[in-house]
TrEMBL record:
It comes from the Bacteria. The keyword Ligase does not apply. Residues 9-250 form the ABC transporter domain. PANTHER family: ABC TRANSPORTER ATP-BINDING PROTEIN, CONSERVED COMPONENT OF ABC TRANSPORTER FOR NATURAL AMINO ACIDS-RELATED. This is Amino acid/amide ABC transporter ATP-binding protein 1 (HAAT family). CDD domains: ABC_Mj1267_LivG_branched. GO terms for cellular component: plasma membrane.
């Protein structure tokens, strides 16, 4: 993982209060370009809310967010996306009847402003074929390119979700629990996949599985009750007394 000197994503004193409850509380986060940054923390620590803030799905109560130095605080999701921040969703939003190839094609169409013209897919399908093939190959789905998404195995659907994020050619890629609900084999396959797609890209991800975090992240931010508890390289963070205490009593999600 090579990080440049540039800061891709920065939050300063970022705060979200839900009816008096501070879900995200004065969070300072800095993600370097080319870095792979994990957000971890016990249930309810504020990880999802922070993701929602970073992508404009939730607007902050106070604090700021910048993307490559540009202030995006309070911008709508599509405005944040236009600045190169793309996210994957833990809950799959795939169209079950469309094939992997068609879904990636649609994602590319959306990105290039052609809109989602379903009734012209035949003609448009050819347009991005080379890029579609590239993306499907990148996530290992070429052999299943023409299978309806509804018939894909769980791990394959999650891989397709990654291809859809990659289709947006993001400058910063946010992955929400890329290995959630997976068995060990799929977890290891996904670690390899994320490692591959993270090369040369900036990634922020949430995951409960410390094996995944340790395998992928060059930096880790541990949240607890909305606040940053510890931030640093994985090797340092995992041995930190405060982190161990925060996780005591937590169910083992690994
Ligand atoms: N829209 C909302 N309204 C009120 N409270 C909310 C809202 N969204 C989140 N919260 C609260 O904010 C806190 C942080 O939630 P969040 O989902 O961000 O945590 P998390 O770290 O992602 O947890 P998990 O690991 O369980 O997904 C929780 O106590 C949650 O109940």
């Amino acid at each position: 993982m090579t990080t440049s000197g540039r800061v891709a994503l920065r939050t300063q004193a970022l705060t979200k209060v839900f009816r008096g409850f501070r879900a995200v509380d004065a969070v300072d986060l800095e993600v370097r370009e080319g870095g792979v940054h994990a957000l971890v923390g016990p249930n309810g620590a504020g990880k999802t809310t922070l993701f929602n803030l970073l992508t404009g799905f939730v607007s902050p109560t106070s604090g700021t967010i910048t993307v490559f130095g540009e202030d995006v605080t309070g911008k709508r999701p599509e405005q944040v996306a236009r600045r190169g921040v793309a996210r994957s969703f833990q809950i799959t939003s795939l169209f079950e009847n469309l094939t992997s190839r068609e879904q990636v094609e649609l994602a590319l169409q959306g990105r290039t402003g052609q809109g989602f013209r379903f009734w012209r897919t035949e003609k448009l399908l050819g347009r991005h074929r080379a890029r579609v093939d590239e993306l499907l190959a990148e996530v290992g789905l070429m052999p299943l390119a023409d299978k309806p998404a509804g018939l894909l195995a769980y791990g394959q659907k999650r891989a397709l979700e990654l291809a859809l994020v990659l289709a947006l050619d993001p400058r910063v890629m946010l992955l929400d629990e890329p290995t959630a609900g997976m068995g060990i084999e799929d977890v290891d396959r996904t670690i390899e996949l994320v490692r591959r797609i993270a090369a040369g890209r900036t990634v922020v991800f949430v995951d409960h599985n410390m094996h995944v975090v340790g395998s992928l992240a060059d930096r880790v931010t541990v949240l607890q009750q909305g606040k940053v508890l510890v931030e640093g390289p994985y090797a340092e963070v995992r041995g930190d007394e405060r982190v161990i205490t925060a996780y005591l009593g937590e169910a083992d999600h690994a």
